[in-house]
Amino acid sequence: MSSNWPRVAIRTLIEEGIIKVHKDGNHGSKYPRAAEFGNTGVPFLTAKSVDETGDIDFENAPRLAIEKANTFTFGFIEADDVLLSHNATVGRVAIVPQIEERVLIGTSLTHFRLDTDRLLPRYLAAYFSGRDFQNQLASVMSQSTRNQVPITSQRKLTIILPPIENQKVIADALGYLDSKRRLNHQINRTLEKIGQTTFKSWFVDFEPVKAKIATLEAGGSEEDALLAAMQAISGKGKAQLIQLQAERPGRYAELRATAELFPSVMQDSELGEIPEGWEANQLGEYLDTLETGARPKGGVSGISEGVPSIGAENILGVGNYNYGKEKFITVEFFNKLKRGIVEHLDCLLYKDGGKPGDFKPRVSMFGCGFPYDKLAINEHVYRLRSQRLGQPFLYFQIGHDRVLADLRHKGAKAAIPGINQTDVKTIWVACPPKDVLLTFNTIATKIVVSILNRSKENLHLSDLRNTLLPQLLSGALTVDARNNEDAT
C-alpha cells in the first residue's frame, strides 16, 4: 500500500459522480408535525436511530403517514447508502442494509449514495468512523445553539481515496473489529432487556406469586403452586422443567429454591396489592447516598483533559457512554471534591434541565473500569446508593417506567425542569425480604458486570481500529489484497 493516495474533498467526489446527490440534496427531510406520525406508514429515521456501533433502529423509528411521505421528493434512502449524523448527535455512521419498504431520513442525517465501482460503502463508513474524519467534523461543528455540521461544511471535509482493491482490503481488515463491537452492543441490549424483564416480572407484576395463587385457587397442591412459580420465573413449561431436572439438577435446585422465596398470598399496601411479607415504603428510607456533584466556578469550557465530569448528556443507561460529549474537570479540582465521586455500580440519575414543561429523567450505571477508572458527576446528576436494596435492584427500580413517569411528572411542573431530593426520596417502592433481594441482585449483578465488561472491550476495539486505519492508509501496515479478492 502507499501513503500517496489522494485526499479528496466530498464536494469533489460529488462533482465527479462518485457520490450521487439528488437535485434537492443528500440531506434528510424537515421533521413533520407530531400529528402526521402514527403506528403505520413510512419509517422516519433521525440521528437517534443510529447507535455508536452502526446499527440502525428501524423498529422503534416513528412512522410517517404515507400521504405525507408521498409529498417528499428527497430524503429516501436505499440499501448501501452511508448515513452520517450531523445534528445534535454528530458523527455516528451506518450503512443501510437491504430494506423492503421506503424509509425517510430527517435533517439530522445525511445519506451518501455511491458509485460502488469507485468507492465502497464499507470503506467510506470505515473512514467516516475513524479519528481523522471525526476530528474534521469536530473542527467545523457549529455550537451556536446545538452541535451541528451543516451540509455546506460537510462538503468541505476530505477523505483519503485508495484504489478500489485497496478499499476492499482496508474494509475487510476493519470489518472484524466493527462486527465484534456491533455484536457486543447487541448482546448488551439483550442482557439489559433480560434484567428489565426479570425485574418487572418479580417486583412489578409479581408473576411468581400470582402463579402460585392461581394454581391454589384452581385446586392445585402446594407442590403444583411451586412448579407454577418455577415456570413463571424460568419461562419454561412442565416438560422443559422435567428435562432440566434430569440434565442440570443443580440449576433445577436453584430455580426451585428461588420459587420457594415467593409467597402465595397478596396484601394491601400504599402501592396497592403486594406480596405478603413485603413492605411498601418510600425510597428515601433505603438510601444511604443521594448527592449531586460539582464543577468549578466558570464551568469547564477549555478543559480538555483531567477527570471526566458526567452530566446529563451521558446518562444513557448501563454501559453506554458518548465520548464525543464528555467534559472534564482538572485533577486538582477532583482531588478536592467532597461529593459526587462515582463508585463502582453507582446508580446515576439525570436530575434537571431541558425545556419548560418537558423533563425526561434517565438513569445510568458505570463500573468495572468503564468508561474510566476515575469519574465525577456534575450538579445536574444524582448519585444513589442503597445497601439494603442493592445497586442492581436500585438501578432497575429507578429505571422502571412507573418511576420515570412519576419523576417526569414532578420535574415538568418546576419552573426550571427537574427534580429535587424530596422528589426522589418520596418514590414509593415495593421492597421484598432480604433473601429475595439477594437472589435478584446476584442474577442482576452478573448481567450488569457482563454489560460493563463488553462496553470496556468495545472501547479497546475502537482504540484498535483508530490505530489500525491510519497504519493501513500510510502503508505502515500491509495486508495482501490477493487474500481479499472475493471481498465485497
Your description of this structure?
The chain has 488 residues and is of the alpha+beta class. Helices cover 39% and strands 16% of the residues. A hairpin with a 6-residue loop joins strand 11 and strand 12.
Briefly summarize what is shown.
The protein contains 15 helices and 22 strands. The chain has 488 residues and is an alpha+beta fold. The strands form seven sheets. It has a five-stranded mixed sheet. A four-stranded antiparallel sheet has the order 2-9-6-7.
Key words describing this protein structure:
488 residues; four-stranded antiparallel sheet; single chain; five-stranded mixed sheet; 15 helices; 22 strands; alpha+beta
Instruction: Please give the share of residues in helix.
Output: 25-40%
Report the end-to-end length measured between terminal Cα atoms.
19 Å
Measured by DSSP, the beta-strand proportion falls in 15-25%
The overall pLDDT, averaged over residues, is: 91
Numbering strands along the chain, what is their spatial order in the largest sheet?
14-21-18-19-16
For the secondary structure, the number of strands is: 22
Q: What Rg is obtained from the alpha carbons, in whole angstroms?
A: 26 Å
What sort of overall outline do the alpha carbons produce when their principal axes are compared?
A: globular
- If helices are DSSP runs of H or I spanning 4 or more residues, what is the number of helices? 15
The parts where pLDDT drops under 50 for at least 5 residues are: 481-488
Structural class: alpha+beta
> In this structure, how is the largest beta sheet organized?
5 strands, mixed
